[in-house]
Amino acid sequence: MKRHSVRIAVIATAAILAAGVLSSCSSAAPTGGSTAASTGSKTIRVTLANHVWTDAIKAKLPEFEKETGLKVELSQYGEDQLSAQYNVKLNAGTNEIDVMMYRPLQEGKLFAKDGYLANLSTDVKSDPAWGWSDFQSGPVGSTTYKDKVVGVPIITEQEVLYYRKDLLAKAGLKVPKTMAELEQAAKAIKAQNPGVAGFVARTAKNAAVTQYSSFLYSFGGDFIGKSGKSAIASDAAKKAYAYYGGLIRNYGPANVSTDMSWPEAMAIFTQGNAGLYTEADSLYKNATDPAKSKVADTVGFAPMPAGPGGSKAYNVPSWALGINAASDNQSNAWKFVKWATSKKLTLAVQQAGVPSARTSVWANKAGTATYPADLAAAIAASTKNGIGHDRPLVIKVPESRDIVGDPLVVAITGGDSNAAADQASTAFQKLLDAEK
Amino acid sequence: MTDTLTVQPELIRAKPEPERSVKRRSKGRAYPIFRVLMLTLTVVLFVAPLVWMVMASLKTNVDIYDPGKTFAFTPTLDNYINVLSRNNYFTFIFNSFWVALWSTIFSLILGVPAAYAMSRFTMHRSAMVVLMARIIPGVSLLVPWYFIFANLKMVGGFGVLILSHMFVALPLIVYIMISYFDSMPLELEEQAQVDGLTPIGAFLRISLPLSAPGLATAGILSFIFSWNNFMFALVLSGANTKTLPVAIFNFVSYASIDWGSLMSAAVVVTVPIMVIALFTQKYIVSGLTAGATKG
Question: pLDDT at residue A319 above 90?
């Protein structure tokens, strides 16, 4: 009796599994397709990250719905939660997402390689008035995969120097323009103001990589050399590691933690406990908003100080809009993307404090009117000389950041950062080889 | 026997103490001091984050980062107003409650008879299969689940959330109840059957009412697990069915974190479950001491 029931159970399970597999094969979603004519439903499902950009767009949504007669269903998540969602849902071939906000540098290559992002090459060129050529070339490069456009950049980010006007004035110093001056200023501020650090920046190995990248470029280095090999043990990179680590070790906050991302570093700066701070400009409102910052009146902005390789900050698209390749509502999804990235909306969003990727908006005076003048100037400088990436452009970005960031932590804690760079370079090269 | 575990430590501590103090005087004095120290330490360790959370929820974003204003600050209710009025938190509270309630009820309906059968008919291999559900990490099931439920057009509804939370609750309930039924004397049911009840009647009229404390323990634990579950709700919920742990992240943005609102939302998530736990804990303990085993 017992045997019998077991056998029946096994057969039934096998049958159910087989039926499931068969039905899943027949209904498998088309992948990697283009925005071929598909009538789709009247509802567009849009997944966005929590961001000022999202808030600004959300406020304007009724206009879009009125204009087009379409309905937008919006889901919003924090950055990491959004990532987790995509990993599960896109992997399962979902068609429940039409428009997706994603991070071109963090996941763009992975998503494009796996065919999650629809090819927008013909769409972006379909309407000259909308103006694809208006988008900055650096960000566009990051949303293009193998000559196919897979996303429209919406938010850009540049690294700038945040500084305290009062502390620099007290020290009788000008705004640092070179790395040597930066170190000098950090030293002077730390010496004159007990309890105040001369310089602060991110210290966690993964989070610091992006902010370290501008130092690396300004010292004449990069993560990956021209030959496609790891370049993080080059002389320039070793100098940059030692310099960044040394600044924090010698002139940073006392007992500095090596686990600081921007919320921690920004808190030190906005509480008035640091004089100089290199960080992404997209965070500037944290420093200038009196509800969040004690130094709102005295904060100034300047371009990245120049190193031996010049002043080379990153200029990257931190976020872009893409269309899910498995969506069966792609033409309507494109309507939304086009609307959200139009000149008019881009201007409105930039005025709300989100640096955009459109040249015309930056050229427009109204586009920078809401920014502190020195910040607008610093951004303009970074955009001009900017490098289009702030982390290694690989598929396994999180892993590579851990590897590349390790010598930073060693440098901050006073270890032998040169040896750490050599070691990291070997590991990084292995990762690069594995991805070939 | 596991059902009585919660009371045992107290019994053990309470009884042997007088003997010890008679035998070794010096140790008799050291022990209470040690005990008080350790208890204080434990309480401080556990309560400090909660206190910090509550205090931060009453501060402005500038004050939260200011070490000088850790204890002395001007409290404000703005964060709570922001969370409760402007962010639809009542919807999320309802969602969490609804999902936790039904996943617990359905798990009890399915799990308790199953546990009874496994206990009375010594189906230990079946019990092992149920335990497998606890051993397999939930993450590994998310992709297939999402795939299946998306094809069934169930993603974003309450149904799928309740089902997925039952995956956590059911094995828990079965295991708690197996041990509870194991500890219940068989004679009670035999007696009932002698008096004319069918086996099912004996279960429904005798065993089930007597296992109320066990049911309470299992039910409350499964409610708490469901209330706190983040992973399943993150992927399987929709914009209108988000549960509290997922909704909390609305206050973490790419370029700004609203710590004040985040902390007050955390208080909103924590307080109901703490209140439930505090009140029902009393019930569980009294229920256990008046249990059928002593009957």
Answer: yes
Query: CA nearest B67 in A: which residue?
Result: A271
Q: What residues make up the domain containing B217?
A: 82-289
In a domain, A101, yes or no: yes
Same domain (yes/no): B238, B95: yes
Query: Which residue range forms the structural domain that includes residue A100?
Result: 43-157+316-385
On whether residue A21 sits in a domain, the answer given is no
Q: Domain for residue B77, yes or no?
A: no
Give A14's pLDDT tier (boundaries 50, 70, 90): low
Domain match, A221 and A295 both: yes
A205 touches chain B (CB under 8 A): no
Query: Do both B137 and B257 map to the same domain?
Result: yes
* 3-state secondary structure string across chain A: CHHHHHHHHHHHHHHHHHHHHHHHHHCCCCCCCECCCCCCCCEEEEEEECCHHHHHHHHHHHHHHHHHCCEEEEEEECHHHHHHHHHHHHHCCCCCCCEEEECHHHHHHHHHHCCCECECHHHHHCCCCCCHHHECHHHHHHCEECCEECCEEEEEEEEEEEEEHHHHHHCCCCCCCEHHHHHHHHHHHHHHCCCCEEEECCCCHHHHHHHHHHHHHHCCCCCECCCCCECCCCHHHHHHHHHHHHHHHHHCCCCCCCCCCHHHHHHHHHCCCEEEEEEEHHHHHHHHCCCCCCCCCCEEEEECCEECCECCCEEEEEEEEEEECCCCCHHHHHHHHHHHCCHHHHHHHHHCCCCCCEHHHHHCHHHHCCCCHHHHHHHHHHHHHCECCCCCCCCCHHHHHHHHHHHHHHHHCCCCHHHHHHHHHHHHHHHHHHHC
Residue of A nearest to B140 (CA): A88
- Taking only the tens place, the pLDDT of each residue in A221-233 is 999 998 889 999 9
Domain count within chain B: 2
Q: Which residues of A touch B250 (CB under 8 A)?
A: 50, 76, 78
Same-domain status, A326 and A303 = no
Q: Does residue B294 form part of some domain?
A: no
Give yes or no for A59 touching B (CB within 8 A): no
Domain membership of residue A275 (yes or no) is yes
Domain boundary among B42, B69, B96: B69
Statement: residue A25 has pLDDT above 50:
no
CB of A42 within 8 Å of a chain B CB? The answer is no
In a domain, A35, yes or no: no
